[in-house]
Structures are given as structure tokens and as C-alpha cells.
Recover the amino acids of this structure.
């Protein structure tokens, strides 16, 4: 019989899955929060090489997430905690655009699958599907290459979470909040058609490729 206490580490895996996909979308903080100086310049008129360089590289482009790389990072993170990961995959597409007018929009339709061998013949699989088109406001933090989000709208964004025990759906569901999408400050590194983003509170770095 599967006991509820066995689900604890796998609940953590499900939360990591949520963080893995969500930290690249921005949260729902109020405008001017997350340490943003209301009087700071945006990337469009920063007047400095670093700010202008980041703006010209990041803005007004469609960035497509390398979901396979992110799934591999998840497997590494879980393995470092002593778990035996037998599968960590992603199917689907996630993209984001940072428009120079200060609006940001994402399109998400990705399913992450994570399987972990408990070591006693039980394999627990978490299947988590993220879908929707969240959007909001964004700006550069001063003249840095860090951006921050505000007024983020998660309406219509959903996360479907399923646990399977040896291929059979578990009767002990674990609730995952669909509106917790990580912190709002995001460090960026952009060169050519490659963009890397990282939220300080996340163990993951997202890698994106410019489309077109």
C-alpha cells in the first residue's frame, strides 16, 4: 500500500516542476515593488551601454524556451537530493516577448513528466501540464541587465497536476497552487539569438532562442 508520507519528497518534485516552468513568467507583485526604483530608467532610454545593449538584444523579439534543457536541470536538482530520477522530459512549447512599450506576454503549452524510483519497487511519476497566455508589465531595473515585472495577469493560466504510482493514478492528490509563478526580478544575459534568464529564488536558469 502507498502511504501518504511517501508522497512528501514527490510533492517537493511537483513544486519544483511548478517553479521550473513558472519562474520564467513573472509574478503578480504590484507596480513599483520588488525593489524597483519608480524613478529609474527603462531599457529603452537608459543611456548607458549595458542598458542599451540589453534592450537591443532582448526587446521586441519572440523567445522560445529550451524546455528539454530545463527538464534536464530538474533531474539534476532532484538527483542531488538523493533521489533516483528515471525520467525527466518536457513536451510542448513556451515563449515570451518583452515589448519595448513595457508590455510582456507569454504563451505556454508544456507538459513536464518526472519519474522517481523510491528504491523499494515503487516508481512515482508526476505529470504536470502548464497552459495559458499570462501577460503584464515589465521594465529594466535602472541601467542593469535585470528586469522586473508588475501587474501580472494569470487569468486563464492553469496547471494540471497528476501523480501516478507504478502507472496507476494516486488517490492522494497533492494541491499545487497555479498562481505562484516565482519571484519578479529576473537577471538576463543576452547575446545574438541566445538569452539566459535567472530568478534569484530559483535553482534553475532558463535558456531561450530567438525565433526567426
Amino acid at each position: 500500500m502507498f502511504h501518504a508520507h511517501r508522497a512528501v519528497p514527490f510533492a517537493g518534485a511537483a513544486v519544483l516542476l511548478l517553479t521550473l516552468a513558472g519562474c520564467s513568467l513573472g509574478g503578480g507583485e504590484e507596480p513599483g515593488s520588488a525593489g524597483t526604483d519608480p524613478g529609474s530608467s527603462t531599457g529603452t532610454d537608459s543611456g548607458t551601454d549595458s542598458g542599451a545593449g540589453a534592450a537591443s538584444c532582448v526587446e521586441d523579439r519572440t523567445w522560445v524556451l529550451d524546455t528539454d534543457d530545463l527538464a534536464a536541470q530538474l533531474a539534476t536538482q532532484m538527483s542531488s537530493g538523493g533521489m533516483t530520477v528515471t525520467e525527466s522530459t518536457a513536451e510542448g512549447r513556451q515563449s515570451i516577448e518583452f515589448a519595448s512599450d513595457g508590455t510582456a506576454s507569454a504563451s505556454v503549452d508544456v507538459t513536464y513528466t518526472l519519474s522517481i524510483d523510491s528504491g523499494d519497487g515503487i516508481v512515482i511519476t508526476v505529470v504536470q501540464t502548464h497552459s495559458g497566455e499570462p501577460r503584464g508589465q515589465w521594465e529594466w531595473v535602472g541601467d542593469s541587465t535585470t528586469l522586473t515585472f508588475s501587474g501580472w495577469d494569470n487569468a486563464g493560466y492553469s496547471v494540471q497536476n497528476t501523480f501516478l504510482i507504478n502507472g496507476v493514478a494516486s488517490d492522494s492528490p497533492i494541491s499545487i497552487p497555479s498562481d505562484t509563478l516565482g519571484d519578479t526580478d529576473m537577471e538576463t544575459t543576452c547575446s545574438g539569438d541566445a538569452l539566459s534568464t535567472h530568478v534569484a529564488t530559483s535553482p534553475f536558469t532558463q535558456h531561450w532562442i530567438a525565433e526567426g
Summary: Residues 8-22 form the longest helix (15 residues).
